[in-house]
Amino acid sequence: MQQDTRTPEPAGQQLRQWRERRRLSQLQLALEVEMSTRHLSFVETGRAQPSRDLIIRLADYLDIPLRARNQILLAAGLAPEFEETGLSAPEMADALAAVEHLLKAHEPFPALAVDRHWNMVAANGALALLTEQIAPHLLVPPINVLRLALHPEGLAPQIVNYEQWRGYILHRLDRDIEMTSDAGLAALRDELAGYQGSANDNAAEGRAPIALPLVIDTVAGRLSFMTTVTVFGTPRDITLSELALETFFPADAHTMAVLRSLGGGG
């Protein structure tokens, strides 16, 4: 990936952009963090230099990702607050062990862990059921699970309600981009939006389900899943804050029975 060589924007300008992404006025934000609107205006325009404490207070209220908080602090001439530990570092061993434990405990149902760009970090054995018919080149690391889902040589031909699922994934990316302002996610969204649609558009008629299922034809037959996403609740490390677990649950009794049978009963 090409390194970004652009000059970082001033801290005040970055804070203003985050405030606008959260659709807050200067008055609203100033009241919430107990500062004057005039001071906030001076910070955003560069007429006043924000302190570390003020940046942290604003970032907490605006729910700015840890990676972006470090960028703001550096732009203000301050030391970064959060470490970014590599997944292979010894310090990550306990967290990754917890991830592996959760993935294994979810069997016989599929589950996987992803990084901030939806690249697969780990997966349990049950995920193989969903990847058996995928083109091998899409399974070469780093494996992007959203590309895997929508690529014409990936899961797309198997997904029965493809157009619904495609819309859900693109909306999910839009939300992630809004929350993080991540250029890598924006590029991924553009790529996925350019994929041609699947011939499958067989969403069930009648009353809409309470949650959108993933209905997919597998080597074990047609299965239906609901998904949940789990994140670490109190991360102090950038890498850990950007890890997420996506778990698949049977959306009907048939899928439950098939997966339990394949998993040995359990």
From TrEMBL:
Residues 15-69 form the HTH cro/C1-type domain. Pfam families: HTH_31 (PF13560), MLTR_LBD (PF17765). InterPro entries: Cro/C1-type_HTH, Lambda_DNA-bd_dom_sf, MLTR_LBD. It comes from the Bacteria. PANTHER family: BLL4672 PROTEIN-RELATED, BLL5781 PROTEIN. This is Transcriptional regulator. It comes from Blastomonas aquatica.
